[in-house]
Amino acid sequence: MKAPDFIYCRAESLADALRLKAEHGDQARWLAGGQSLLAALAFRLSEPTALIDISRIDALRGITFDAGVVRIGAGTTHTALGVSDIIRRHVPLLAEAVPLIAHAAIRNRGTIGGSLAFADPAAELPACCVALEATLIAVGPKGERRIAANAFFEGVYATALRDDELLTWIEIVAAQADEQQTLVELTRRSGDYAMAGVAAVLRGDAAEITHARLVFFALGDRPVAAAKAAALLVGKPLDEAQVALAATASAQEIDPAGDLNGGPEMKTHLAQVVLSRALRQIMTQAKAKAERTAA
Ligand SMILES: Cc1cc2nc3c(=O)[nH]c(=O)nc-3n(C[C@H](O)[C@H](O)[C@H](O)COP(=O)(O)OP(=O)(O)OC[C@H]3O[C@@H](n4cnc5c(N)ncnc54)[C@H](O)[C@@H]3O)c2cc1C
User: Fold this and answer.
1) What are the structural domains of the chain?
2) How many alpha carbons fall within 13 Å on the CB side of residue 241?
3) How far does the centroid of ligand 1 lie from the alpha carbon of residue 232, in Å?
4) Which of 9, 10, 24, 35 has most ligand 1 atoms within 8 Å of CB, for mutation?
5) In this predicted model, what pLDDT tens digit does every residue of 163-209 receive, in sequence order?
6) pTM for this predicted structure
């Protein structure tokens, strides 16, 4: 199939983007990397009358670190995220997630803003942002709006963004000294969307976990926080017994629909597998860190 006819216009600045949106109205869509939108057009899943290209807006690109907060432009590509020293040092979860997103050609064009706005429940970056308690910043005709990541995702391909709003920046508090972050997923082939995955952020030391956020992806209609499983970890040391308890508890917190990758039972089993692997990975990371500190 071919895409329906549409008007193409390129915004040179944020103000220009908002002006073009007001001009073309409800049926106009933002075009970032085009990696999801153009496929949707080709399959006629979406039939906008105008595409507003935001990929050349300099203000939407780049990564900065200031006063303990990492700020990422929505137009930053997956590749740029993956090679950023700021991201590697302060938000290692994102650096770990990037190589698991699709293939290099898609990562070179696809953007973090596009991934969050598209809100595919199997995508890595939405779950990372929820696990990291990120703040998503949108700009529209009425000004700027800050949206907590856990309130942003409303369902399959549905977000809290208003039709006339543009996602501009993502703010994430840098990892604390005692924080471990990791992401584990299962895919049929390298580069495929995940069958099941989890983003995990834990703080504490060998004696006691003081904070835990566990967020599943590809296991619901949006990123799903396993809050009860996370609460079980807090106040205790992380060991095999705790891993088993958390994995069992997490199964009660999800209700995955079956998909091409398997039925609900299999997906629930995979959730426990990815969570156990993530927590064991964190135990290994924490041990290595403690040994480095002691040496
Ligand atoms: C074969 C294939 C495999 C893939 N595998 C994965 C995978 O494993 N994991 C994964 O996470 N993703 C995967 N993707 C998706 C990829 O990461 C896309 O890059 C991403 O989902 C969309 O980013 P984009 O910049 O290309 O957005 P676009 O395709 O340009 O836009 C997507 C949607 O977001 C809206 N949008 C874009 N930017 C903004 C903004 N700043 N503000 C408001 N709305 C905006 C658009 O209007 C559109 O509705 C895959 C894609 C393909 C084609």
Assistant:
1) 7-52 (3.30.43.10), 60-173 (3.30.465.10), 179-289 (3.30.390.50)
2) 2
3) 35
4) 35
5) 999 999 999 999 999 999 999 999 999 989 999 999 999 999 888 99
6) 0.96
